[in-house]
Amino acid sequence: LEVIASVEPRIAEATRAELADQRSSLKLIASENYASPATLLTMGTWLSDKYAEGTVGHRFYAGCQNIDTVESVAAEHARELFGAEYAYVQPHSGIDANLVAFWAILAHRVELPELAELGLKNINEMTEAQWETLRHKFGNQRALGMSLDAGGHLTHGFRPNISGKMFHQRSYGTDPQTQRIDYDAVRAAAREFKPLILIAGYSAYPRRVNFAKMREIADEVGATFMVDMAHFAGLVAGKVFTGDEDPVPHAHLVTTTTHKSLRGPRGGMVLATEEYAPSVDRGCPMVLGGPLGNVMAAKAVALAEARTPAFQTYAQAVADNAQTLAGGLLSRGAQLVTGGTDNHLVLIDVSSFGLTGRQAESALLDAGIVTNRNAVPADPNGAWYTSGVRIGTPALTTRGFGAAEFDRVAELIVDVLESTSPATTAAGTPGKAKYVLADGVAERTKAASAEM
Ligand code: PLP
């Protein structure tokens, strides 16, 4: 940090402050973790300085032999860890991984058949008129994914995201009673809508998904089945999700981030069957530029870590701790979406405490508990204020928290939520944004968490 401070002290200071914040608070954001020192150190090297557009052995720049090694090792670990036929480790983030997957599917299902029909090898050989026809076809495809309020991600077809603009999009929600995926309803939607792509995966759904059933639905309507396992990749890597709950044997393409439950560097990845591999391999130049050599190297290190028995123990603890957390919250009167969890996250419906998600998130933060607000199914407060708070166990499990600590965390959360009330506005009505936390609660909670 001294070296950084000599150039830009504010950055050194922010870095130092972030460490202090992460050490002094309870990090319960379901998508965050603590990467290992080996992973963090691997990111800070001169591998960052090298341009390597293209793929292994087929680069658009000279001198890429070391990046070739890095990318090959990372892909080998990914393939072997997840039992995938092919792995593409270049995407810089989860959104990039999804864009690569979408365009690989469009290339495989729309572009290649069109080229074959015209007897051409490459889109550059097309006439302007042929190209216009193909462009129109790209823009006319359908995707079916989980809705945002049911726990899906914005890249699964949400209108403000590019995915919602690229595709004619429809979403499936959850059953209003059970708040779980209703596979019959997904099948009915797929039969009616006939999507090119069926997307499974989520950011805020506290239950496991039956990917075998989803693949059956995709096959029935001729859709490519894509799973975004960004949130639960660590549970797949750690063999907590197996059989029908493991997306890799069932999906044509699986996308992921590497920094959430997988505990690697910030980045993304695409796994694919051999059939889709050549299209995914064109991620650069399709939607990516030069890969981040330092981050691919850190992915290799984190994936090597994830192949150890210690990581399997960790992944099981993540799931066990989520059960403890859910049990502790329920027994103290909290309401949980779907009534519990069987993955790494819990979604509290904080409306029973008389709060919006935003008020609850802010009050918890004041007390040193870092969470994020999240919509609940059919949320009356919308995506900004929301009625939910999402809580995940991956980060604190990395810190060594077990059942006793997570039960205490549940106690602290309920204590804070019960001690918070909406602030009254000038008009005498409760405001959606402002809140009042009872005196002494923040100090009491911070002191309790410092002991853990
Ligand atoms: N997919 C899912 C399911 C996610 O939850 C997220 C991030 O929250 C992403 C994709 C996007 O990842 P990134 O923020 O790395 O682009």
Which consecutive residue ranges, at least 5 long each, have pLDDT under 50?
none
- What is the number of helices? 19
Number of strands: 17
Distance separating the two termini: 28 Å
Mean of all residue-level pLDDT scores = 96
Mass-distribution shape: globular
InterPro entries: PyrdxlP-dep_Trfase, PyrdxlP-dep_Trfase_major, PyrdxlP-dep_Trfase_small, Ser_HO-MeTrfase, Ser_HO-MeTrfase-like, Ser_HO-MeTrfase_PLP_BS, SHMT-like_dom
Site (Plays an important role in substrate specificity): 259
Modified residues (N6-(pyridoxal phosphate)lysine): 260
Catalytic activity: (6R)-5,10-methylene-5,6,7,8-tetrahydrofolate + glycine + H2O = (6S)-5,6,7,8-tetrahydrofolate + L-serine
Task: Explain what this protein looks like in three dimensions.
49% of the residues are buried. The strands form 5 sheets. A 7-stranded mixed β-sheet has the order 4-10-9-8-7-5-6, with helices on both faces. It has a 4-stranded antiparallel β-sheet with strand order 11-12-15-14. A two-stranded parallel ribbon has the order 1-13. The protein has 452 residues and is α/β, with parallel strands linked by helices. The two termini are 28 Å apart. The protein binds pyridoxal-5'-phosphate (PLP). The site of pyridoxal-5'-phosphate (PLP) has 14 residues, from helix 5. The site of pyridoxal-5'-phosphate has 14 residues, from helix 5. Its main location: cytoplasm.
